[in-house]
Sequence to fold (481 residues):
Amino acid sequence: MSATKLLIGDHWLDASDGARGTTYDPATGASIGEFAEATADDVDRAVAAARTGFESAEWARMTPDARGRILWRVADLLEEHTPDLAVLESTDQGQTQGIAAGVTLPLAAQVFRYYAGWTTKIEGKVSPVSIPDQLTYQQRVPLGVVGIITPWNFPLAIAAWKIAPALATGNAVVIKPAEQTPLSTVRLVELMREAGVPAGVVNLLTGGPEVGKALVRHRGVDAISFTGSTSVGQEIARVAADDLKRVRLELGGKAPSIVLPDADIDAAVIGNLQGALFNTGQACGAFTRFFVHRSRVEEFTQKLAAAAESLPIGPGSAPETVVGPLVSQEHLDRVHGLVQSGIEQGARLVTGGARVTGDLESGFFYPPTVFADVTDDMRIAQEEIFGPVLSVMAYDDLDEAVARANDVDYGLAAVIWTQDLKTAHTLPPRLRAGTVFVNQLPLIDPGAPWGGFGLSGWGREMGEYAIDEFTETQSTFINLA
Ligand code: NAD
Fold:
């Protein structure tokens, strides 16, 4: 079996010791390919290549317009290759074709186009200093070499939403995708080179946590942009403290959904189900805790469970599939362990709760699982499950619902369901969440910031915020005397 290679500078290479890792199709458990497993030497060489790329006249002196054209071309190539990339993402990650071709690929292309437009709009300021005869201005300058570390749930989209602003602002990057799902990132990097990204400006290291750790420790890396679990994010922040590397962290979530008494229950059931089961619940913004007014909680629970049971489960490649597999056996065991904890702690299991068997047994399939009578102290109410597990809780008054919704360590997303205009506008600022949705499933758009409070991380991605994240402000004083 051939293995994908590392990209270091201008060269596609095997790992320096020839080591390889294997990636699997979560729908069947079968191996689908191998990838080079980078060594510490490879990390050194990739970082050195990125430094050379960053400082090269070709990149450093490239006009914003030319840089923007390259990013735009990446978007075009992503669109041209959507059918094969969507199959690759679905086979490696488990995403349904609807998500891979309908969300992941369009979003990745849109992000490259969005930041292609920004290259010519990154403006500075002139400061009115009170020292005589001075012209003092600020400009945004790139950070240098940025290490990008991504998770397995949306490999291509998340790589795109970090790489595009990092390059739009003139940095060079070393990207390390998750070991479970490297294939679409390898292809993205190939397309970036084809689009004209100069040698050394994008470098690729595949491999596991050791590769990520080496990148974070590396003194030649100026910044780390990480999306992944909270525990790894905390470790990265600790290690990066040694050289005060710039760190931005997109971590876990435990989004609450507050259903007010006036909500359209049928719309809330469908929207909540979509928001909870998007990518089989393997989404950081997934809705997980459903606070429903006591007057409507039983109706909501029964309708939610019935709708959940009706959803087709199957491989991402089958057009009718709505609920695909979980990414790995290890992850399935973790999700099931949390479901067991819910039962042991006294929650009422309404539907689901055991691995899918029969024809799908060789894959990592877990059915939508609905719990009722969940209390705030249960593990399923506090910990990120990252699977198709929905916990319904009753509340009596809105202040109580808000306090309970905010009573977790995470603060990434939240949703409210109401038909009252005033509530729709006054409730969001009371919620400790980076993004609040009203009467809809979670959405991501390059024009709107994304990030969280508390253990959901540091900083914001997307929009103008990402331009700030990938640059430093530099002041220049010119003596006019
Ligand atoms: P993970 O933290 O286990 O791994 C993420 C990446 O970090 C992988 O590439 C991995 O190899 C690497 N890594 C592991 N240990 C490392 C270390 N010590 N130092 C440096 N790199 C290391 O996360 P995961 O299981 O791949 O992804 C799921 C998590 O990602 C969930 O918690 C989810 O909420 C989070 N996530 C957050 C967002 C967001 O926008 N906030 C988006 C998607 C996923």
Q: What stands out?
A: The chain has 16 helices and 23 strands. The two ends are 70 Å apart (CA to CA). The CA atoms of residues 178 and 416 lie 33 Å apart. Residues 149-153, 158, 176, 178-179, 208-209, 212-213, 216, 227-229, 232, 235-236, 250-253, 284, 384, 386, 412, 456-457 surround nicotinamide-adenine-dinucleotide (CB under 6 Å).
